[in-house]
Every structure is written in structure tokens, then in C-alpha cells.
Amino acid sequence: MTSVETYMKGLKAMRRGFGKDTYWLHCGALLGPAMGISDGMRISGDSHGDDIDSYKQC
Fold it and tell me: Residue 19 CA to chain centroid, in angstroms?
């Protein structure tokens, strides 16, 4: 299996574990492979990676 197929297999296992009645908001997903498996994905600019200074309040 390719790395993407392995990733998708893991996502599908998680989906089965969560059950159909659970809304799964996936944060940090690989967008393409997660489409249709998770219910939603966070992709906004509220995360600034390793730049700790970007989290400081003005």
C-alpha cells in the first residue's frame, strides 16, 4: 500500500470507531485523503506553527 492508502485506512478505522452519530472535526488532516471520511476539517490561519511569538497577545 502507498502512504496515502495507509493514511486513509487509518482514517476509516477511526471513523468506524467514532460511530455514525459522532461529528468528527479533523484538525491537521491531509485534505484530499480525509474528504468524505471526516465530517469537517480545520484549515484556518489560527495556527502559526513553530513561531511561539505569533501566539502572544498584542
Answer: 17
